[in-house]
């Protein structure tokens, strides 16, 4: 199993504005899509909810017209267990702002199970999502991390909340300790809505590339704690197989200790 003890060097780039972060995230995604589509014929990309959903629109510019959308397989690192047409659904938000604009085959977009979502069955949704990931590993669409059996996604685009949570792994909640499952669930999330499913930390850290994009002053304290290695914050535990990089705007980076600048 992958280690999550911060042995992959945490990298960062600071940009002037949120718009610059979004543009750089799009460029990073485009380049990795090109690399993996050429190498394997697939690109497995994991998305988050939150602000990032809007930043994905930067991929819709003519510069990236050659993106091989038909080779994309899209997952969510976490999802709120609400009906798929609910305004809080990460799937719906991403569909409305980005996915509906690009020709990714519908069968390559892996939303959570709609029955579990409609019933608010978080445990069931986690089980079904884990089965889905395992099936795609068996089909060689998702690679595995150094023959550990853990899935290895090509790229994950992540966000962090002001409390330092990433995906739906929240500070002080036991889900961060889960090591055996691929997908777990929470029914008392401190951020609403309360029922969510989430990739576990080993799965998150097995990805080839992890890009954490964080903007705004509200996140500055948490960013500073992460870069001081405060592992109480789930986001401080982010690593990756090849690269774990943080894209920050100046506001989010404003409280970084001077030795980190
Ligand atoms: O609830 C969630 O929050 C985090 C962070 O969102 P942000 O708006 O502060 O960027 C997000 O990454 C996660 O996917 C989402 O479910």
From TrEMBL:
UniProt-listed Enzyme Commission number(s): 3.1.1.31
GO cellular component, one term: cytosol
Domain called Glucosamine/galactosamine-6-phosphate isomerase: residue spans: 17-246
Pathway this chain belongs to: Carbohydrate degradation; pentose phosphate pathway
Molecular function terms from GO: 6-phosphogluconolactonase activity
Enzyme class, broadest EC rank: hydrolase
Domain of life: Eukaryota
InterPro entries in the record: 6-phosphogluconolactonase_DevB, 6PGL, Glc/Gal-6P_isomerase, NagB/RpiA_transferase-like
Pfam families: Glucosamine_iso
GO biological process, one term: carbohydrate metabolic process
Catalytic activity: 6-phospho-D-glucono-1,5-lactone + H2O = 6-phospho-D-gluconate + H(+)
Family, per entry: Belongs to the glucosamine/galactosamine-6-phosphate isomerase family. 6-phosphogluconolactonase subfamily.
Protein name in the entry: Probable 6-phosphogluconolactonase
Species of origin: Brassica oleracea var. oleracea
The organism's taxonomic lineage, starting at the top: Eukaryota, Viridiplantae, Streptophyta, Embryophyta, Tracheophyta
């Amino acid at each position: 199993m992958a280690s999550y003890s911060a042995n992959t060097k945490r990298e960062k780039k600071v940009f002037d504005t949120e718009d610059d972060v979004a543009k750089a995230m799009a460029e990073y995604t485009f380049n990795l899509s090109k690399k993996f589509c050429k190498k394997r014929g697939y690109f497995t990309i994991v998305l988050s909810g939150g602000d990032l959903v809007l930043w994905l629109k930067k991929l819709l510019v003519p510069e990236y017209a050659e993106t091989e959308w038909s080779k994309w397989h899209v997952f969510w690192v976490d999802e709120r267990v609400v009906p798929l047409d609910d305004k809080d659904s990460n799937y719906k938000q991403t569909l409305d702002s980005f996915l509906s604009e690009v020709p990714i085959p519908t069968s390559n977009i892996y939303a959570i199970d709609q029955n579990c979502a409609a019933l608010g069955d978080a445990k069931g949704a986690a089980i079904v999502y884990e089965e889905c990931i395992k099936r795609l590993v068996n089909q060689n669409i998702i690679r595995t991390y150094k023959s550990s059996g853990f899935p290895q996604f090509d790229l994950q685009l992540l966000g962090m909340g002001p409390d330092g949570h990433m995906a739906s792994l929240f500070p002080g909640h036991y889900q961060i300790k889960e090591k055996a499952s691929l997908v777990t669930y929470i029914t008392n999330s401190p951020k609403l809505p309360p029922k969510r499913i989430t990739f576990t930390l080993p799965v998150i850290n097995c990805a080839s590339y992890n890009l954490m994009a964080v903007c705004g002053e509200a996140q500055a304290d948490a960013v500073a704690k992460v870069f001081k290695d405060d592992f109480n914050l789930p986001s401080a535990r982010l690593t990756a197989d090849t690269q774990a990089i943080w894209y920050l705007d100046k506001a989010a980076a404003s409280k970084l200790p001077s030795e980190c600048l």
